[in-house]
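ok so I'm stuck.
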Amino acid sequence: MKARHKRFLLIGVALVLLGAATALVLNAFRSNLVFFHTPSEVAAGEVPHGRTFRVGGMVLAGSIQRESDGQTVRFSITDTAKVVPVVYRGALPDLFKETKGAVAEGQLGDDGVFVATQVLAKHDENYMPPEAKDAIDRAHRTATTVSE
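replied:
not stuck anymore, here's the structure
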């Protein structure tokens, strides 16, 4: 085999390996990507089924219920237009309270209840995740437009 052919073979093998490495990295990135959705989007069915995503908004007043096992908590998240029931097993953040901002990460169950694997609460009096604030503003504008 000539040196020129060996060089082309080496370049070809390198390109195949580079392509395979790129495909693996992109696949890992896609499987770890978690999108944010609002309760209105969840209610409209615009969320991925069988995939993890985040839903955020305000914790509905009077919706926090602790079950007898001491670990399971049920609550509802709203964007002022729609409400999503959430169930979470584990310790909630100290700042998690009714009428305060929260983001839950998990999957939507077949029964329409969001099964959270992680719950995040706002970290001070003035902070709300930008996505949650935009979603609440949009839902409020939509609710105002509909009621007029």
